[in-house]
UniProtKB/TrEMBL annotation, chain B:
This is ABC transporter permease. Signal peptide: none annotated. It holds the Pfam family BPD_transp_1. Belongs to the binding-protein-dependent transport system permease family. The chain crosses the membrane at residues 35-55, 62-85, 105-127, 157-182, 202-223. InterPro entries: ABC_perm_TupB-like, MetI-like, MetI-like_sf.
């Protein structure tokens, strides 16, 4: 059964101000969705809502197609989809510690785990930094490590919040390649950006937050149309 | 005068190195009582500190201020309170803990808990929320995510533990009132130093003082070493 997160009749307020509302949005395995919106429109909030990090003021988010939880585990949305912050959080420790943090030990044999770690290191080109302190990495290296760490878990759904903002071209290329692999593996991807870029060209669906509404369409704004924009970091 | 000091120091070292039973009994009572008080208080206090730092509820401000006030109450006043609780006509009189190590442990728990709660609350208030969110969305259980947060905060949490332990190991007032300073039973290092000094037996007082001094040096070097490793994070 395909893993799917469905948000229905959702409304989100920030203090007294309404941020956005929508009737129905679904994010499932195989989807590659471009989430667009201006700074402050609520892109990160929408992702955190779907990831289960925050709760809506009204409405529900329902998960289907995931492995049932054990009786002692809370049936939280958290952990169904991996959410990568715009500024990725790396745990205190080495690059290797961060990579191995979320290894799904029960799903793979030790050999498979080793191979997956090796592949992640190679894709993110972090081989020479394995023993380095993760907090010493540059912005691009941090983001590559965060994506590699998420990739290792073989997520069914992955949300990337402005994944290539503040990156040099080489890092952008590496991240693009890693995300392409995830797409080929069938991982559902939700990629936010306040403007189009090379990454959004991979997308098949488009969610646009505008005037406090989230509008879904299959039309993706082309990368070329937006060349006049300068790519800047959104906070 | 100098010769007198020298002789006292020689006697003090000889008491320690010759494993004088009275001196080592006092040291043993001191450490066993304080360790017991610390271990019993540790987990509930840290959980309460986490709760106060993480959740908004009516009266949170009041509870926080009460805890902080309790930190600064003189130990002799806490000793008086513990005495009133444990005296035969007191609410806990049936336990018959007055002038026992159990009574001293209870009194030291009352001193230790506010320090641990307040300092762990301060530590948890400083955590980057992304640590918990990242851990959970990568699939960690809430227990593992909290463990990860504690690991990220290990330096301030360890400092809280050391501060609480130092306070109870060196307090005189409560131990004197609740324990009664009975040799081989409830006489600990601070009460013994007070007694021996009043008797004019400076050698034993210096020997016991040296134990506290050595402990203070070890603790401060440990703190210094931890502080040296804990670098501020830019993200």
């Amino acid at each position: 059964m395909t893993a799917k997160l469905t948000a229905k009749n959702v409304s989100i307020n920030f203090k007294e101000r309404k941020l956005f509302e929508f009737d129905n949005l679904s994010f499932c395995e195989g989807d590659v969705i471009y989430l667009q919106g201006d700074n402050g429109s609520g892109k990160s909030t929408l992702m955190k809502l779907i990831a289960g990090i925050i709760k809506p003021n009204s409405g529900d988010v329902i998960a289907t197609g995931f492995a049932p939880k054990k009786w002692w585990q809370s049936n939280s949305l958290l952990g169904k989809a991996v959410y990568l912050h715009q500024h990725a959080y790396l745990f205190d420790g080495s690059v290797e510690y961060n990579l191995r943090y979320a290894l799904p030990k029960t799903r793979f044999s030790p050999q498979e785990l080793q191979a997956r770690v090796a592949q992640a290191i190679e894709s993110a080109q972090l081989g020479s930094l394995l023993k380095s302190d993760a907090t010493d990495l540059s912005g691009g290296e941090r983001q590559r490590l965060a994506i590699a760490r998420a990739w290792i878990t073989q997520p069914k759904l992955l949300m990337l919040d402005e994944p290539i903002s503040n990156m040099d071209k080489q890092s952008q290329k590496l991240v693009l390649a890693m995300i392409n692999i995830l797409k080929q593996e069938g991982t559902g991807l939700l990629i936010s950006s306040h403007q189009t870029c090379g990454l959004t060209a991979l997308c098949q669906k488009h969610w646009h937050i505008s005037e406090q509404k989230v509008v879904e369409s299959s039309h993706i704004p082309s990368f070329e149309q937006s060349q006049e924009f300068h790519y800047v970091s959104a906070n | 005068m100098n010769e007198g000091w020298l002789a006292l120091m020689q006697q003090a070292f000889s008491l320690l190195l010759s494993l004088d039973p009275d001196v080592w009994s006092i040291i043993s009572v001191s450490f066993s009582v304080s360790f017991a008080a610390l271990i019993i208080t540790l987990i509930p206090s840290i959980v309460l500190g986490f709760f106060l730092a993480s959740y908004q509820f009516p009266g949170r401000w009041f509870v926080t201020n009460i805890v902080q006030t309790l930190q600064s109450i003189p130990t002799v006043v806490i000793g008086l309170l513990a005495y009133l609780l444990l005296t035969r006509n007191g609410p806990l009189g049936d336990l018959r803990w007055l002038f026992t190590q159990e009574g001293m442990i209870l009194g030291q728990m009352m001193i230790c808990a506010p320090v641990l709660i307040a300092l762990s609350q301060a530590a948890f208030s400083s955590i980057d929320k992304r640590a918990y969110e990242t851990s959970r969305t990568l699939g960690a259980s809430w227990q593992r995510a909290i463990w990860t947060v504690c690991r990220e905060l290990r330096v301030p949490l360890l400092l809280a533990v050391i501060a609480a332990f130092s306070r109870i190991l060196t307090e005189v007032g409560c131990s004197m009132m609740v324990g009664g300073n009975i040799l081989h039973h409830t006489r600990n290092i601070p009460t013994a130093i007070a007694l021996e000094t009043s008797k004019g037996d400076f050698a034993q007082a210096i020997a016991l003082g040296l134990v506290l001094l050595i402990l203070a040096i070890v603790i401060n070097f440990a703190i210094g070493s931890l502080r040296g490793k804990a670098m501020p994070r830019s993200q």
